Amino acid sequence: MLVCAQIRDPGNLGAVVRVADAFGAQAVVCTRGSVEWTNPKVVRASVGSVFHLPIVTGVGLDEVTGALRNAGVQVLAADGGGADLQDYAARGLLTRPTAWVMGNEAWGLPVEDAALADAVVGVPIWGRAESLNLATAAAVCLWSTASAQRSAG
Question: Where would I find the tRNA/rRNA methyltransferase SpoU type domain in this sequence (predicted)?
Fold first, then answer.
């Protein structure tokens, strides 16, 4: 599952919905303050993926993380300063049902929002790039989880 926390750019939301669809996410949740998934630019950027999986909108991040945790889903916040995703995967921690929380494209996840997650995990960057864009980070995180879960059977 993918939780989009205050994603404002329609192109970014469409791209992450497409990524979520590609890697088998069961749903996408857009917290209050996110662009509407029905925005024509979101639909266009998703290349139709907005019609392939449920999209829940207008909820608070605290509500979403609480409901996911109560359902037995681990909640991971994506942030460049978090635990190394590769190490996290190597320890078998991505085989559980997992929801990724992705923050706003401009400022990421505020500290208080990241604190709502079970862990903060980051995509390792070995080159000179400072960071990844939202869709790329979502793709790496969701692929890592999907791959770990498929390998675990």
Answer: 2-143
Instruction: Identify the helix (H) or strand (E) that includes residue 2.
Output: strand 2-4
Q: Which two structure tokens, joined as six digits, stand for 39?
A: 């925005």
What single-letter amino acid sits at 151? S
pTM: 0.95
Question: CA 78 to CA 137: how far, in whole Å?
Answer: 8
Q: Angle at Cα 32 formed by Cα 118 and Cα 39, nearest 5°?
A: 120
Question: Which tokens go with 17?
Answer: 């919905």
pLDDT band (50, 70, 90) for residue 25? very high
Domain span at 30 = 2-152
How many domains is the chain partitioned into structurally?
A: 1
| Cα distance between residue 20 and residue 126, in whole Å | 25
